[in-house]
Design a protein that fits this description.
The protein is an alpha+beta fold. The protein is built from nine helices and five strands, in the order E-E-E-H-E-E-H-H-H-H-H-H-H-H. Helix 4 runs antiparallel to helix 8 and helix 8 packs across helix 9.
Length: 197
């Protein structure tokens, strides 16, 4: 059982890779993926799920917006050659759900956009994650049936160089306001979403 499983408090400072959270007068430095840090502002109250990493004399807190992302971080730590900094970099560049889909489809190429991970290492990570995530999790990560219009959006995004997993993930994350819009509008919104990662 982790010693510090979550923190709830006020953001009192932020850097490009961490946030300082005041919890009852004690400030905790928490390393976090950029996807979480982008959502946090100084003065904001928040709750994050944490992993306390102990290495010799060093204690480091890592924070995540959801239990699912925390569990993916812990799963990544079980992969040979992946330490907390690399696991954090992976989750900063690839959303948890997209990573699960990539593992389910064996699409290792998506991991190569993380600095320091080449094609060989990416294949090794996907191979080991398939074993660690398990068939139930992979099944739940499977993509639901898509309409003809959505198929056109995926085709357009893959033609622009994105992987099928990235295209499907961007499509699933489209706001409800554009779900019934034209293919062109969906592609435009999906591209702006993909540009953030």
């Amino acid at each position: 059982m982790p010693m510090i499983g979550s923190l709830r408090g006020e953001i009192i400072d932020k850097t490009e890779d961490s946030a300082l959270i005041d919890v009852g007068g004690v400030g905790y430095v928490v390393l976090a993926p950029t996807t979480l840090l982008d959502l946090l502002d100084v003065g904001m109250h928040t709750q994050i799920f944490t992993h306390l990493h102990v290495r010799e004399q060093e204690l480091t807190l890592f924070g995540f917006p959801s239990r699912d992302e925390l569990e993916m971080f812990r799963t990544l730590l079980k992969v040979q050659g992946i330490g907390p900094k690399v696991a954090l970099a992976i989750l900063s560049h690839i959303p948890d759900e997209t990573l699960r889909q990539a593992v389910a489809s064996g699409e290792a190429g998506i991991l190569t956009r993380v600095p320091g991970i080449g094609a060989k290492k990416a294949k090794q990570i996907v191979f080991q994650l398939k074993d660690k995530i398990g068939f139930e999790d992979i099944f739940t990560a499977a993509t639901p049936a898509i309409s003809d219009t959505d198929g056109e959006v995926i085709a357009a995004l893959t033609a622009l160089g994105y992987s099928v997993v990235e295209a499907q993930s961007a499509l699933q994350q489209l706001p409800d306001a554009v779900k019934n819009d034209s293919v062109e509008e969906k592609v435009r919104v999906a591209l702006s979403s993909l540009a953030k990662f």
